[in-house]
Design a protein that fits this description.
53% of the residues lie in helices and 12% in strands. The chain starts with a strand and ends in a 5-residue tail after the last helix. A hairpin with a 7-residue loop joins strand 1 and strand 2. The chain is mainly alpha-helical. The chain has a two-stranded antiparallel ribbon. The protein has one domain.
């Protein structure tokens, strides 16, 4: 199923406990492995916009499946992993390497190229 179920204390200090649902650690490891394969050295011939479109399809499907409960930390971790791997992928594609434009961060550059964030 890919979820971790646990009871957490109430954040307001009451004597209530609520069921917390998050993506499991194994699901995050599997997702990183899939993203690693999609951004591997063997895929350096794929144009950037096509690669981002493929990543968007995959990330939207993954986010919809794991949107139940409280997936904020997991989504933030996956976003950071995708941005780091995509920048690394672009640096590896050319002998000169890739640098984000001087007036914007790599996050804004990839957002301008159409990459979705979870």
């Amino acid at each position: 199923m890919g979820f971790t179920f646990r009871y957490d204390r109430d954040r307001l200090g009451r004597d209530k406990r609520y069921l917390n649902l998050t993506p499991s650690r194994k699901a995050l490891v599997r997702e990183r492995a899939v993203l690693h394969e999609k951004l591997s050295l063997r895929r350096s011939h794929v144009p950037l916009l096509d690669l981002i479109a493929e990543l968007n399809r995959h990330l939207r499907g993954w986010a919809r499946y794991y949107s139940l409960g409280y997936p904020r930390k997991a989504m933030r971790d996956i976003n950071a992993y995708v941005l780091r791997r995509l920048a690394q992928h672009l640096k590896r594609r050319s002998q000169r390497g890739w640098k984000a434009p001087t007036d914007e961060s790599s996050y804004h550059y990839f957002a301008r190229m159409g990459l979705v964030t979870l």
